[in-house]
Amino acid sequence: MGAGLLSGMFGVGGGTVMVPAMVLSLAFNQHRAQATSLAAIVPIAIVGALIFGAADSLDLPAAILLAVGSLVGVQVGARLMHRLSAEWLSRIFGVFLLTVAIIMLVK
Q1: pTM (whole model) above 0.85
Q2: Number of domains in the chain
Q3: Cβ atoms 39, 18 nearer than 8 A
Q4: Of residues 42 and 92, which shows the higher confidence score?
Q5: What does the pLDDT look like over 13-38, one tens digit per residue?
Q6: Contact criterion met (CB below 8 Å) for 89 and 31
Q7: Range of the domain at 60
Q8: Contact 19, 34 (CB under 8 A)
Q9: Nearest 5°: CA angle at 19, between 15 and 24?
């Protein structure tokens, strides 16, 4: 529910909320948490897109471009993920989250 609330409010949830929660609270390894998060984000994204689309808050051309790029990128990322150890994957993920947080705080 927390991931859904944050997804609806901020457009986040999968990576920024669910992955750390599964790793820290459910003892998932980093690979399983990230894969599970990707599967869980599908229904969250569909519902969010429908609600925001009904409120005329959706930029459909931008969403389509993001989807196409993401469909290509996720294939590369998923294959690369399996080549990294859980330790390195967790470190890279942490650096990513920290970088995004710093950029958002500065801006």
Answers
A1: no
A2: 1
A3: no
A4: 92
A5: 667 888 888 999 999 999 999 999 88
A6: yes
A7: 2-106
A8: yes
A9: 150
Distance of alpha carbon 2 from alpha carbon 14, whole angstroms: 11
How far is residue 98's CA from residue 69's CA, in Å, rounded to a whole number? Answer: 24
* 10-18 own/partner pairs: CB under 8 Å, 24+ apart: 11/48, 13/41, 13/44, 14/38, 14/40, 14/41, 14/44, 15/93, 15/97, 16/97, 16/100
Instruction: Kindly tell me the burial class for residue 82, based on how many C-beta atoms sit within 10 Å of its own C-beta (0-12, 13-18, 19 or more).
Output: exposed
Structure tokens that stand for 101 in this block: 């947080």
For residue 15, give every residue at least 6 positions away whose Cβ sits within 8 Å of its Cβ, in sequence order, or none. 34, 37, 93, 97
Amino acid letter, 51? I
